[in-house]
Amino acid sequence: MKEKINKTITGGKSFENPTPIFSPEQRRQLPISVLFGGNSSERPGSIKSSMTVANLLQQAGYEHVDRVDITDQTVRTLADNRPFGVAFMTMHGGTGEDGTLQGLLEMMDIPYTGSGIAASAISADKVLFSNFVRGLGYNTANQIVVSKASELEGLDMTFPKVIKPATQGCSYGVFFVKDMAELLEKATFSEQFSERMAIEDYIPGREVSVGLFENPHTRSPHVLPISEIFLKRPIQDFESKIAGGEALMETVIPAQLEPQLQGTIETICADIFTKLNCKGYVRMDLRIAENGDIYVLENNSSPGMLNMQESDFPKMLIAGGINPPEFADLMVEAALLNYQERHEKKAPSKKEMIEYLDLP
Ligand SMILES: Nc1ncnc2c1ncn2[C@@H]1O[C@H](COP(=O)(O)OP(=O)(O)O)[C@@H](O)[C@H]1O
Ligand SMILES: [Mg+2]
Question: Is the CATH code 3.30.470.20 the one for domain 2-126+204-344?
């Protein structure tokens, strides 16, 4: 396991590990609260992910694993009467994935798995994420960003387009549209999902998904075998993602990609992971255009772990030869190291600053 996990894609700076606060044996004695639920549209998936993760932690030898349903009520009492070890995040969508809950945990001084506030917030917003990726010099689909469908009337644009609410997942409100009439009709529906929506150029070509996770030992992301999604429709729409839509798409892991293309995709994803300061595990969706150009669509900062056989991320883990219980343990270890790192620095005071500069 160690050897596999240490295989990295990008170099990563050489890093002296901070002394782990807990030995592996002590770590497994910590109370772990698997946080799930919330009130986003992805609540049902989160319930399943939390059961999968709780199971993996138990298999890894954790003796005090608790599942906590995050509701308006329970969130108020999270830090009360609970010896809090680590919060294992299995919330999907909404305030559980967009940095809000992460901020609350920071304020309550509770270590948690996965990305921090900024990386979560940027990943949860398809407009912010796209701007971030473009800033790194990678391709993203051109976007027109509007709040209301009526703002699109009369604009001169090419077709087809894809409509995407900025802060939704699971293809809620996502549509492929061929012309202006269809765009206006579908956008009138989609505008209800989110403050803003992106109208993106449609990128024809292959679709792949890339799972990555933080390796706390090397400080470099570990890239898992890539999955390719073969679609019967132009896009992975809502119908293809819900129960009954299985016939509309097929997933193949590992994707059969030219080694050079595969290497480029891995490098791009690892670079975004690092520069966005992602933690824990993520899954990025990309398209490979017909001319070979790679377009980054989105980053899922809390990918589904609904069950080991069907969810993409666990399938990628298994294809990568990673033992899932050991992976869950590694994510707890990473959460503790990240927590320790955030807390070991104490900012100098105004007085110390003045003394340092030798100011009167
Ligand atoms: N610009 C685009 N060009 C082609 N297909 C797209 C584009 N944007 C999204 N899609 C399709 O729509 C699906 C959902 O979009 P995505 O950005 O992954 O959001 P989410 O999965 O959160 O709903 C993708 O898997 C892809 O099939
Ligand atoms: Mg997606």
Answer: yes
Nearest ligand to residue 123 Cα = 1
pLDDT tens digits for range 262-312: 999 999 999 999 999 999 999 999 999 999 999 999 999 999 999 998 899
- State in Å: Cα 235 to ligand 1 middle: 6
Specify the pTM: 0.92
Burial of 356 (0-12, 13-18, 19+ CB in 10 A): exposed
Query: What amino acid is encoded at 323 in this protein?
Result: N
Q: What ligand is nearest to the CA atom of residue 288? A: 1
Question: CATH assignment of 142-201?
Answer: 3.30.1490.20
Which segments of the chain belong to CATH 3.30.1490.20? 142-201
CA distance 162 to 200: 5
Under 8 Å CB-to-CB from 6, ≥6 apart: which residues?
Answer: 215, 217, 218
